[in-house]
Design a protein that fits this description.
heterotrimer, A mainly alpha, B alpha+beta, C mainly alpha, A: Four Helix Bundle (Hemerythrin (Met), subunit A), 6 helices, extended, C: mainly alpha, 12 helices
Chain lengths: 170, 180, 343
């Protein structure tokens, strides 16, 4: 019962802060609300006994990616004068596109069985590091290695970009 | 050339070896230097309680001396003002009236005598220039003030009080001139 | 829920909070003393005997100063910046095992607020969000120098977190657990990790200097380039919180290093004691180690000059990360050999 109340409170806080990301006028505030949203999502993970996922979510998203977002936003001179004026037409198209995406999402998710499934509390160790590591290196070893190849490709690309820039300067 | 102190080091710009590039040894050496300093005797003098010993020829606040009978030595000749490289000294001369023989030693005396302590560089040339052994620098410190005007010292602050004579026997320029 | 557990944990949390604050306050005093001793001076000695009331005097001064918010600053963010710094500095102490179990009123009291089974990851999560206080504070000040300080802080923290994490992985490999209490128990007696992993310790130590923004890596507040860095516009207790957070972070990272490399609360000959005597002695051993680490932090600050920013990045990316990776690979190989993977 306590868990349910907690889940409802945290869930509504998550949705509230996620809404604030969209509704905030200032991009820096949006980023900060996004960070807060990540924290609430992590707390929901902890409620589901997925501590590893919760902490990694904070390290990766709140700690690294959002810091870089903030980093870039701080370097841009974002004030009210510099804000681009959007015409009524662009606004309308924006609303239309977002609305279409929303309806497609609803259509896709409406038949999914997420609501029907219940969480079985049989294995309380399911979200912990050890079981996760065992799964990653046995059952899911191929996707794991493929994703690491993806990372290496991205890194090589980054190194290449950095190198090429140097040649131009020379 | 042979150095006199034997502390000379020849500087070279040869590339650093691998162990030098690690900097670890250099850092450890630096840390040992600071650690040794931690154990050394402290050099601080805790001022209000402990006062540092002044040199006998320390050049601090000026004094206008009186002679043994308590008469002012200064005759307002202006040599100190001429000697002063910082133009800090001004004075107005006055003639001694009858009945003032107890106050001033000679017929001419300084009616006002002002030293601007903000201009003064405490070089001691006034002391050297004085033919009457009237102005001396002492080991007293000029106190701090909040207003510029307060740094212009008149005779009220410069002339030594009769009941509180200031010892200048250790100065370099005392007793050189014959007592008139 | 067990009421006794709730009470004992609350008491522990309050004690930890007060101890962290007290140690941070007295680190400021000790830092000034140490700086003075290294420079052949006496240091603060006017407030109370030997100046031991100096932190209280400093704190009072901070409270009584004018609290100024610049006109063009983002007021809301300007206020929460130092708060976030302080918060992130304080919450790490929750996972630190301070000593062996204490027995009081017929209960076994664990001297650890929570034995989080992924303690090290929690530590890195807190480290990675601790930059927000500085970033938000620096940006909200609406000052170029503050912004520079904030940007330097964030890039420095992101860079050094990697090497720190990789050097911590060696310790995780050796203990086979992410929980700090298990890492400590593996180092029972004198079986400390420092004897097996000196290179990892060196990398971890340099990185924690950088993560806590201590000299020689205090570029975010480098006064001869950036006036005051991220806290240029701050005054009064908000500035106090920023400065205080730095000292708490120093205390916590000293404690973490004591746990990961110097055996935490273990001390040689601890098997001769048991019960509450052991608990008290272990807490004393732990704090001794922590204080020695704090001393080394300060000693380094007053010995080594500050890095230039490109040198800082060079050290982080091109020196420490390769060393940490090679060290991790060698450790992994040795462990695999010991477990007979290649037979």
């Amino acid at each position: 019962m306590t868990l349910q109340i907690l889940a409802i409170i945290l869930g509504s806080l998550t949705i509230g802060s996620a809404l604030m990301v969209v509704l905030s006028k200032h991009p820096i505030r949006s980023v900060i609300f996004l960070v807060i949203t990540f924290f609430f999502i992590s707390s929901l993970y902890i409620l589901m006994n997925a501590e590893f996922l919760a902490i990694v979510n904070i390290i990766v998203y709140a700690g690294a990616i959002m810091v870089l977002f903030l980093f870039v936003l701080m370097l841009l001179n974002l004030n009210k004068q510099a804000e681009p004026q959007t015409s009524l037409f662009t606004k309308l198209t924006g609303v239309l596109t977002a609305g279409t995406l929303f309806s497609v999402l609803i259509a896709a998710l409406k038949d999914s069985l997420v609501l029907g499934k219940t969480y079985t509390a049989g294995n309380s160790q399911i979200g912990l590091v050890e079981s996760l590591g065992n799964l990653l290196f046995s059952k899911y070893v191929v996707p794991f290695e493929v994703s690491s190849i993806l990372f290496i490709a991205a890194m090589v690309g980054a190194v290449l970009l950095a190198k090429r820039e140097k040649q131009i300067i020379d | 050339m042979k150095s006199l102190t034997n502390r000379k080091k020849v500087v070279s710009d040869k590339p650093m070896t691998f162990t030098e590039k690690l900097y670890l040894w250099a850092i450890a050496k630096g840390m040992m230097v600071t650690f040794k300093h931690m154990l050394r005797k402290r050099k601080t003098i805790k001022y209000p309680e402990e006062v540092r010993v002044f040199a006998p020829v320390y050049r601090g606040m000026h004094v206008l001396k009186r002679d043994e009978e308590g008469r002012e030595n200064c005759t307002a000749c202006g040599l100190c003002a001429v000697a002063c490289p910082a133009e800090a000294i001004t004075m107005v001369a006055g003639e001694r009236q009858k009945g003032e023989e107890k106050l001033y030693r000679e017929e001419k005396y300084a009616e006002t005598y002002e030293i601007n302590m903000l201009r003064c560089i405490f070089c001691g040339l006034c002391e050297e220039a004085c033919p009457k052994e009237a102005v001396f620098l002492t080991d007293r410190i000029v106190p701090t003030e909040f207003e510029r005007n307060d740094f212009i010292y008149g005779k009220d602050k410069l002339v030594e009080p009769l009941d509180h004579r200031i010892d200048i026997t250790k100065r370099q320029h005392t007793g050189k001139r014959s007592k008139i | 829920m067990d009421t006794g557990l709730l009470i004992e944990k609350s008491v522990l949390v309050v004690i930890l909070f007060l101890v962290s604050l007290g140690i941070a306050a007295y680190s400021t005093y000790f830092e000034r003393k140490l700086a003075a001793w290294i420079q052949d001076r006496v240091g603060p000695d006017r407030a109370g005997p030997f100046g031991i009331l100096q932190p209280i005097a400093d704190g009072t001064k901070m409270f009584l100063k004018e609290d100024f918010i610049p006109k063009n600053a983002d007021k809301w963010l300007f206020i929460i910046g130092p708060g976030i710094s302080m918060f992130t500095a304080l919450i790490t102490s929750a996972i630190i095992p301070w000593g062996t179990d204490l027995e009081l009123f017929g209960r076994t009291i664990s001297l650890q607020v929570t034995d989080f089974n992924i303690g090290i990851l929690y530590l890195f999560a807190v480290l990675s969000i601790s930059v927000y206080g500085i970033m938000i504070g620096g940006w909200a000040s609406n000052n170029k120098y503050s912004l520079y300080g904030a940007i330097r802080a964030s890039s420095q923290m992101i860079s050094y977190e990697l090497a720190m994490g990789i050097s911590a992985i060696t310790i995780i490999l050796m203990s086979g657990s992410l929980s700090l209490s298990e890492i400590v128990e593996k180092q029972h007696g004198m079986n400390w990790n420092i004897f097996y992993q000196p290179v990892a310790f060196l990398v971890f130590f340099v990185c924690s200097l950088a993560e806590t923004n201590r000299a020689p890596f205090d570029l975010p507040e480098c006064e001869n380039e950036l006036i005051g860095g991220y806290h240029t516009e701050y005054s009064s207790m908000k500035l106090g919180l920023f400065l205080f957070a730095e000292y708490i972070a120093m205390f916590i990272s000293s404690a973490i290093m004591a746990i990961m490399f110097f055996g935490g609360y273990n001390f040689p000959g601890m098997d001769a004691f048991s019960g509450n005597t052991l608990a008290i002695l272990s807490v004393l051993a732990f704090f001794t180690k922590t204080f020695i680490m704090i001393f080394v932090f300060m000693w380094i600050r007053w010995t080594i000059p500050r890095f230039r920013f490109d040198q800082l990045m060079h050290l982080g990316w091109k020196v420490l990360i390769p060393i940490a990776i090679v060290n991790m690979l060698i450790t992994g190989l040795v462990i695999a050999l010991n477990q007979g993977w290649f037979n």
